[in-house]
Fold these 2 entries.
Entry 1:
Amino acid sequence: IGRTLFNETHEAFRETARRFFEREVAPNHSRYEEQGHVDRDLWNKAGEAGLLLTAIPEEYGGLGGDRIVSAVIMEEQARVGASAVGFSLHSDIVAPYIFNFGTEEQKQNYLPRMASGELVGAIAMTEPGTGSDLQGIKTRAEDKGDHWLLNGSKIFITNGYLCDIVIVAAKTGNSGQGSADTSLFIVEAGLDGFTKGTPLKKIGMKGQDTCELFFSDVKLPKDAILGAPGTGFGMLMKELAWERLLIAILAQGAAEFAFEHTLDYAKNRQAFGRPIASFQVQRHKLAQLASEVSLGRVYTDECLRAEVEGRLSPAGAASAKCWVSEMCSRVIDQCVQIHGGYGFMWEYPVARAFVDNRVHQIYGGTNDIMRELIARSL
Amino acid sequence: IGRTLFNETHEAFRETARRFFEREVAPNHSRYEEQGHVDRDLWNKAGEAGLLLTAIPEEYGGLGGDRIVSAVIMEEQARVGASAVGFSLHSDIVAPYIFNFGTEEQKQNYLPRMASGELVGAIAMTEPGTGSDLQGIKTRAEDKGDHWLLNGSKIFITNGYLCDIVIVAAKTGNSGQGSADTSLFIVEAGLDGFTKGTPLKKIGMKGQDTCELFFSDVKLPKDAILGAPGTGFGMLMKELAWERLLIAILAQGAAEFAFEHTLDYAKNRQAFGRPIASFQVQRHKLAQLASEVSLGRVYTDECLRAEVEGRLSPAGAASAKCWVSEMCSRVIDQCVQIHGGYGFMWEYPVARAFVDNRVHQIYGGTNDIMRELIARSL
Amino acid sequence: IGRTLFNETHEAFRETARRFFEREVAPNHSRYEEQGHVDRDLWNKAGEAGLLLTAIPEEYGGLGGDRIVSAVIMEEQARVGASAVGFSLHSDIVAPYIFNFGTEEQKQNYLPRMASGELVGAIAMTEPGTGSDLQGIKTRAEDKGDHWLLNGSKIFITNGYLCDIVIVAAKTGNSGQGSADTSLFIVEAGLDGFTKGTPLKKIGMKGQDTCELFFSDVKLPKDAILGAPGTGFGMLMKELAWERLLIAILAQGAAEFAFEHTLDYAKNRQAFGRPIASFQVQRHKLAQLASEVSLGRVYTDECLRAEVEGRLSPAGAASAKCWVSEMCSRVIDQCVQIHGGYGFMWEYPVARAFVDNRVHQIYGGTNDIMRELIARSL
Amino acid sequence: IGRTLFNETHEAFRETARRFFEREVAPNHSRYEEQGHVDRDLWNKAGEAGLLLTAIPEEYGGLGGDRIVSAVIMEEQARVGASAVGFSLHSDIVAPYIFNFGTEEQKQNYLPRMASGELVGAIAMTEPGTGSDLQGIKTRAEDKGDHWLLNGSKIFITNGYLCDIVIVAAKTGNSGQGSADTSLFIVEAGLDGFTKGTPLKKIGMKGQDTCELFFSDVKLPKDAILGAPGTGFGMLMKELAWERLLIAILAQGAAEFAFEHTLDYAKNRQAFGRPIASFQVQRHKLAQLASEVSLGRVYTDECLRAEVEGRLSPAGAASAKCWVSEMCSRVIDQCVQIHGGYGFMWEYPVARAFVDNRVHQIYGGTNDIMRELIARSL
Ligand SMILES: Cc1cc2nc3c(=O)[nH]c(=O)nc-3n(C[C@H](O)[C@H](O)[C@H](O)COP(=O)(O)OP(=O)(O)OC[C@H]3O[C@@H](n4cnc5c(N)ncnc54)[C@H](O)[C@@H]3O)c2cc1C
Ligand SMILES: Cc1cc2nc3c(=O)[nH]c(=O)nc-3n(C[C@H](O)[C@H](O)[C@H](O)COP(=O)(O)OP(=O)(O)OC[C@H]3O[C@@H](n4cnc5c(N)ncnc54)[C@H](O)[C@@H]3O)c2cc1C
Ligand SMILES: Cc1cc2nc3c(=O)[nH]c(=O)nc-3n(C[C@H](O)[C@H](O)[C@H](O)COP(=O)(O)OP(=O)(O)OC[C@H]3O[C@@H](n4cnc5c(N)ncnc54)[C@H](O)[C@@H]3O)c2cc1C
Ligand SMILES: Cc1cc2nc3c(=O)[nH]c(=O)nc-3n(C[C@H](O)[C@H](O)[C@H](O)COP(=O)(O)OP(=O)(O)OC[C@H]3O[C@@H](n4cnc5c(N)ncnc54)[C@H](O)[C@@H]3O)c2cc1C
């Protein structure tokens, strides 16, 4: 069934994004994978091309687009399997925190530079000892009168290695109630005591930098805090539906990408003198995959429409994140199988898709956590 | 996510249908199951209530509604688990054949009486020896100059026992090409040589009559044919997308029905001093089911919207039939399990749902046949 | 892979059992299903044929066979889909309770008559309000000095309608610790205040009687108790591994039965001018089913060997019950599908198998309870 | 359930193997992964330790062990996740070809040196254009009177980069019947015209060398042929059951390895103040995995017993390969999920297990090909 989501602006955007990913990203992707991160100047190029902070108003350097624009960019990223690129986290997660909860000064200070690619943004919640249970973090910022003193460490931070600013979740209170004790800080790279690990070696998403961050007596200016002390947890909760939908959109794009490659492969690869796609089991498998991908597409689009119209529930987003990420894995697993031995070779897009996209079930809240959320809404 | 499909007319219709199913059908359903068919006069009552042929124009006794109205009626039927009722086949499959392909006389003759419930309609394609392969039917109508002579037998015919007219697919040609040799006939019950078996004993849908029909030298008037000789196959193909979507809608309704019963049960049934729904495995299972049901709902609604707008592809409908019917079985199977021993007891709605709804994967073209269709479109 | 479990005695037994099920049971099975229970005299015939209490020593009227003999009988029962027959519960669950925990008098009194079929045995633990949580039962036996006074009700009791004696779990203590307060009683049918409901209507196993039992001020003689007061729970736990293995064996037999019927059907049924079994998707489906059935067979046999050698762990038996019952449902569901419309018709063995065998996931402790047990052993 | 397969010799062997893998392999495995192959001298060390060609008689340098010894070695390899090591292919596939079909001279020439690790063996059937369809190979050896002239190329050859000898399947006839035209040759590395690619980059098994081999006018001595011309296909078929069982054994070992790591992790990792393993969904997941792993273990052991006793059918081995490899993927996928973010990090054993073991469904004949085989036996 056709999609009914896009207007001309969106389509124009798609063109720009497609060109960028095909010309700037695709040819360099293997190199990114080797080095464990994209080239730093890719961010600047993306800024120039107008691909960053598209949903932030123009007065802050953004493009004033809607969330469908954000989705379009991710779809185009998925179309070339460019798992190395962390634009979406930067533009659609980090920037909105500053835009929604920051002071006018913070917005003026950071957003335009994030839009241009001068600053790369990250967000650091997870710690070695705690991921699902955000209230259990140990990183702490002490109010020292004229500054905050930050101590602790974070792990698995996307864009962490290249980031210039990172929003850090830290305990500021002692009430014992995690949700009331948590605050968010904008921490700039380069501060004394803030060091980064080397990009972590992962089974997939090898070009996307994922880092440990260490904070040892880092002095933060008083105005590094985002919103009021103790309101961090609330802020984190507010945009979760959108953040989860983002993952669904990525996973959906990846499933489509892998499916199309596989359909193509199956039509061309010969065995026993016939195209693979002519064997009934493969034909039915492809039909099954097509159905699942189509279901996911319709659901994701409907969620996106709901999101834009302000009526996407957290449970709806959690369903999308959960179901689409599992569908994505299921589909790609079959795509690998249909490729035979080639499905195991790094240079084949579905092989990389297999390892890259396993993560969608894990981050942004594991799927078990999603089911907890959905269950609570029943 | 909320539904955005219905206008006020639809909702008014829903009210009428809900009242009818609750008052006229639900209290008698067990009896229908015992006797293997609904009471004959239920049809007349449904006609009076304006629940038949809603999508047929008013000039032919219908209500001139759209297909969303048809869906609304089916949803309400599913809401009370009324698997005995065959209105949808009568109104949304049989009547459209006559409306779309019949002569003015045939329309005038049959449609108003079908709308009032005076005539019950059925359609007979499947034969003991052939179901999936429609071109392989053996029933044959010989052109005897002033009449057609019909011989053969049909099996698994819904509404067959109570039907007053039945559209019969029969071979009329000898080209050897099944698709070119097939014609459709409107056969009236009561004709000499046309006999019916007793309703078949099934594992579910026990109240819905499913019959064998036998034609032994049945003389049909020349104008009993629908459309031109040899065009039967084409007619059958034309409305298939809609017919399959109908099954998806039924299956979707059934999945929701079972899920709601189960959610309710799980919240109330206690074990180990706590509601079943408070055990994490059950909570996550319910969350999983909720997701799947929600996916199916969004997809079915989108297909229905596409159908109404004339853009539902056969493959899209096949995907819906296939995926939703399998989801329906998966979901209801879990619902049974969550009910423990009660899930195996006939009087529990989910128990009946388990056996009733298994059929959606089978009729209207088995799901394998659906996958063939989808595959062909890739 | 071949089976290596049976010696000549076992095989001789298989012959007897096969003959009995084919001659005495199969021809009457539909009737049993209509009436909701087997004929009472089937029990006597089975006793005569030496099919009851085969594992009980000869001095108590049994045959002194091992548990492989019990398995052989169940396999033969499964081979004809004779779900109506409750011999296994009677011989391999109820009788061992009396044999293992009864006084010499109780053994002499009941076992020989159970072996001959003069007495039909049942065991009643489940109550309307509690199934999984056995410690939560409400049925209570008060010690009235010279008798026990039994009050309460039981549900879902296999062989309940025809039973002559039933082992009833009841609370006798007030410690508040379910496990220490529970006792078992041998209750004879015919006692004042003991009434039976009519056989419950189920979706499957329609010929097997499953009943509610009501105890209203039933006076039990002092020696009706099995073992010491308060030891009931311990007794129930002791033979659980075996009881669960029995279910696995039944489910395994049913899966094989359905698979064989389906393989046969698929080789003979034609569609599009070819046997169903010649379509690659069906061929691969059959291969998949064959693998799963074979896995289950090897595992069940190995568990049986372990059981006979006294080294089957509760977790091992729980695994078998859980995995085999789910495999059984999965396999039979596919078997139904391969039968097309016929898979939905009561007269087809796989159709009945579909509804009959769903129960294995539920009774004997639901599969969730099995997973609890397995988890505890990890 | 306990295993009953091993005698003291086997257990002694297990000790040796365990020590070897723990001391010689585990500490170097990451380096093997970096370089894309094991160190060449690991082969010599393994030879010295008596871990190569254990099933070949002592007169040819082997150890005269049975196939259970081979299994023991593989289990120990799996126990440390040592996917880089290709001993099994060398010892249990390549050597038997020479032993079973070679001339006395060939045996004397190659086997002792293979046993010592002086020669590394490989077998090359697959070509870029054909994998599943072995009869479709294009590599050809022309009989030039005093030598064979070999031309063609092979892909995905395990041990290819380090191999000293490789058994190459090539066409020698022109009958058009692939099976009658195929011969096997023992080709020594170093021959003119025989070149190797660099190890292929794969998503997993990164330390195991998998190579392309190119033959351009390679002159082979007349006695390089194994068996008679045109008998290659028959030889390939003969040991297939064993070769497939080997894959099942590896996959089974890997599933157990991952499960044990995960059980351990789940008991120790805390979230929300409790061990992960204490959440009911995780507990039940672990129970489910334990069941599946246990099923696979019992089946694999039974197949191994059957193999040793000469009664393992090709279909039985295909079932084992197919079911166990899929179970292995299913289990490890869940293990990854239970590890949360750590499941995606290369340094975690389950992360590597996830990518390493996906291949079992693909090589040795894809699982679709297995299902073809099983289906043929039904
Ligand atoms: C590639 C990648 C990028 C990432 N990027 C970022 C980032 O930019 N910023 C950031 O802050 N984090 C990031 N993360 C971290 C990610 O959000 C966490 O890994 C994730 O939330 C899970 O936390 P954990 O790894 O600590 O798992 P745990 O919390 O330790 O969970 C382990 C397992 O226990 C289960 N579990 C936990 N609680 C329950 C419960 N109550 N009931 C049942 N099961 C439970 C989980 O589902 C999981 O299966 C990233 C992770 C990855 C892999
Ligand atoms: C309750 C009920 C109501 C029904 N109502 C009606 C009705 O009103 N009118 C009517 O005409 N019919 C009706 N049917 C019949 C129904 O449409 C057929 O049962 C269905 O189309 C399947 O046909 P079959 O039973 O002959 O199965 P078969 O065609 O014999 O198929 C058997 C199996 O083979 C598979 N198969 C067939 N062809 C292929 C292939 N090419 N490749 C792979 N697999 C294949 C099928 O998927 C199926 O699994 C009804 C059936 C039921 C159960
Ligand atoms: C055909 C048939 C024959 C039977 N024969 C007998 C008989 O002869 N004698 C007899 O005593 N009983 C018999 N039973 C009863 C049977 O043993 C119970 O139905 C079964 O144990 C489940 O109990 P319940 O129905 O009360 O379900 P409940 O205990 O109410 O369970 C409902 C649901 O909750 C789940 N659940 C329960 N506890 C937990 C938990 N802690 N964590 C997660 N999930 C949980 C269950 O898995 C199930 O899905 C029979 C049942 C049937 C259907
Ligand atoms: C790590 C690794 C190590 C290997 N080691 C060796 C080695 O040492 N020596 C060696 O010779 N080879 C080796 N191989 C090759 C391996 O055996 C082949 O990859 C495998 O047999 C599949 O062949 P293919 O890749 O050409 O897939 P194809 O044959 O192209 O198959 C593609 C897809 O089509 C499907 N398909 C094919 N035929 C049919 C059919 N009739 N019906 C339905 N579906 C069909 C397959 O199942 C698969 O899904 C190795 C492969 C890998 C990945």
Entry 2:
Amino acid sequence: MADPLNIALAGLGTVGAGVVRLLADNGDLIARRAGRAIRVVAVSARDRTRDRGIDLSGIDWVDDTAALAEHSGVDAVVEVVGGSDGPALALARRTIAAGRSLVTANKAMIAHHGMDLAAAAEAGGVALKYEAAVAGGIPVIKGLREGAAANRFAHVYGILNGTCNHILSVMEKEGRSFADVLAEAQALGYAEADPAFDIDGVDAAHKLAILASLAFGTAIDFDAIETVGVRHVVEADIAEAAALGFRIRLVGVAGMDAGGLFQRVHPHLVPHDHPLAHVSGSLNAVVAQGDAVGRLFFEGRGAGAGPTASAVVADLIDLARGASGPVLSMPAETLERAAVADAGAREGRAYLRFAVADRPGVLAEIAAAMRDAGVSIESLIQRGTMPDGSVVVAMVTHRGREACVTDALGRLRGSASLTGQPMWMPILED
Amino acid sequence: MADPLNIALAGLGTVGAGVVRLLADNGDLIARRAGRAIRVVAVSARDRTRDRGIDLSGIDWVDDTAALAEHSGVDAVVEVVGGSDGPALALARRTIAAGRSLVTANKAMIAHHGMDLAAAAEAGGVALKYEAAVAGGIPVIKGLREGAAANRFAHVYGILNGTCNHILSVMEKEGRSFADVLAEAQALGYAEADPAFDIDGVDAAHKLAILASLAFGTAIDFDAIETVGVRHVVEADIAEAAALGFRIRLVGVAGMDAGGLFQRVHPHLVPHDHPLAHVSGSLNAVVAQGDAVGRLFFEGRGAGAGPTASAVVADLIDLARGASGPVLSMPAETLERAAVADAGAREGRAYLRFAVADRPGVLAEIAAAMRDAGVSIESLIQRGTMPDGSVVVAMVTHRGREACVTDALGRLRGSASLTGQPMWMPILED
């Protein structure tokens, strides 16, 4: 068997400790598959004294995280510190500059700095791998970059944040409010104390930016993503959607459409017969629609020590076997930033929900606004009430331009009939 | 850009023509992703004159298929002739002997001769790739061999034959008989004129043998697979299973269990809340349960020109980028044939269906046989009738050893109460 692949590991939180544990537990099996042992020779983390339940004997402890990049005898650095900038980015840059390969689980860093890092890695002839950055243990980076690489993709989309999916699933199953379920998830450790990154869709957008680049051969463009999270989904939305034949999921969607690259993270109504409707709890799932392969669907655990470590170590096995090819789908220097799609020009169906005062004429006012904006209504129900006692009017539109719906909502802005902000959600197609 | 990857293509049926078309349609994109053009320089097929709707100008036509192996300037040979032996195998052996890489969609050849071919390829330092051999366009070979390579697998299973899944789906949806749906599928070209390979489970078993080797690091052992197809599933089974909360799917299952490697292709009852229950029509799906990653689920098109070509060309892109690593999960010479599991010692739940005469005492006789064999009944329904008018008794057992169920069925053999062969199907777990 060849010489071991020696790695330095930055970060010993849940993921880092998971990597150490997985390499220990399945070390022999991994070595047989990789053709050589994969050995942690140096680590760096904040607190040296903390008991993580893993054996670090024989492993060098390095206080200066960035110094791992040049640590003696290291073939590759694994970065699981997190954060788009700061120590993670410093380490990534120094590792590549030192002519060593980098494996990272850091979606924020790849979403923000992936183009620069990829170009540097390719110029330096080292690998940069990030399977764990999207959808945790699901090998979807590999699926797009390699497994479906012969295809022109129509779109790629998925459930990319397990916390949001957990919250929506519990709301749906137990009829509880967003705030209530979030508070419980925080108490149980399923959601962060500061949950904004997850529930506002930023984490999903990081992942979507990476998937879009892989699928469409465009430069990663996180800033162009329209990002709306799940804060404003109320129990009534879930109930009305169910009555109309849908489930609500936070879906990140990307496609070449309406004059450019369309990228959006938003709560969507997903038809009951669509595979994403059956993705429950903290699972993640990704759909890619290729011109040759048709619809590919991947599902699995998107977070947690085991799944994330599984993806990190898969990258290491690739390195040990002799990974090759570009960092993204094509050499980074050939990827250009796409024009941004005009979302208003996209065609689709939409869900609209209004909280209205319970008095005559309200429905006529809404219907008139729809008519005047050219929005055609496919189905409408008025049956629920909001927590404040106002009446819920929910509808699904026929296919039409998003701009028309925006226009209709504009016409209703400030109307005394509405007791709160209307909710708009796109309906997921194919 | 580097020199093109020059390929010779054996077989211009649905798949071969699909490969030519895909390389033509997406050629520029594929070249950008692969880092070099992928170019068909020679082809061989039975009938030179047939119009396949593809442009073969500038491509050498070779009458002797096996001679493609040494055709001048060829880097890799693509074999889509089919058949476990004969011309396909001869070409495969000659290609590897000639020091060239082989890409194949041939599940039968890999199931029967994969170990020898892999050993020869590894000894010769050439690649042998076969993504298209299992589950068509779904990158599940890559998923197991690379994406989830850090995991110890508990089991791997899936819906591996689209024809059977189509037939079962239509029977379920339209309440029609097996023979009726099969005849229609044949007329529409969804099923072969000689459908035995599909409906008797042989095709699924070929694929399962490959998946099991990848997951468990054992030698491919097709002969050890217990293979039962879908011929004996009747409408009443589907209806009773539905009443009990299940759908019927032909599932290939492999795991290390009961003293060795367990491999079985058999109709299973799949709980409604299991992802395989939602795999309809001709789709394929694979589940792998890893110790770190948990349950991974892959779904997509398992056959047809586009999906199969997608997988073949993905292999070619891997070659063009510089593929590496063993043919299977580990070097072929290190893989040993596993002991065969004692299926009778496995624990699980089962579905049993009896067609019985409509007279007193029949149920007591069945119940007594179950009791005497130590089989505990979880639920039982007697409501349907068979086409011949006999009464259907269907039941689901509690978890127990398969051997007990076999014993119970043995006790009832030859009973005058039974008007036909009992049906036994395992219930799919996790």
